[in-house]
Amino acid sequence: MSTAAVPELKQISRVEAMRLGPGWSHSCHAMLYAANPGQLFGRIPMRFSVLMQMRFDGLLGFPGGFVDRRFWSLEDGLNRVLGLSLGCLRLTEADYLSSHLTEGPHRVVAHLYARQLTLEQLHAVEISAVHSRDHGLEVLGLVRVPLYTQKDRVGGFPNFLSNAFVSTAKCQLLFALKVLNMMPEEKLVEALAAATEKQKKALEKLLPASS
Length: 211
What we know:
Elements: E1 10-12, H1 14-18, E2 25-40, E3 44-55, E4 60-61, E5 64-67, H2 74-85, E6 96-101, E7 108-117, H3 119-130, E8 139-145, H4 157-161, H5 169-179, H6 185-206
């Protein structure tokens, strides 16, 4: 199986991000998670439950969105968006985790917030989200990230990483799992390698055989 490194974006501090000029846009997203003592099929530890969402464009991402710094602080802007998609949660500066500069033609600094909940609180968020304004429109539903790998070395997290993610969401997920000590870096690398190999094989099946 081919090797894969955990992709990384350029990280900057919150202070540095706030000093960026008006040519930069700010996106704020939230990773909500909870320790999960459950076992899949009675034998595979779940370890943690992490919430992401299926977006209107068919891409996976974290709850949140762009914040207009002319009118909102990062947290006020984030909470405004979360109120539309989750409906029952407010984050603070204490939940701030990281800021990363994105690559590409658009100058965006991506801020990530993370809060650990109890499993009961996480479930309450899932229920509330179904009744939020954006449910079925901009947000097609919340999903839990499977943080385990099955015996075939593909099922679970590697398969999840084979999906399409919006912008920095995949890098932010991997970064958060690493710095919050939710998954060892070697396990992240193994999952990425398995996902990359799966995508490569799927592409080879679609392409005509070379003559």
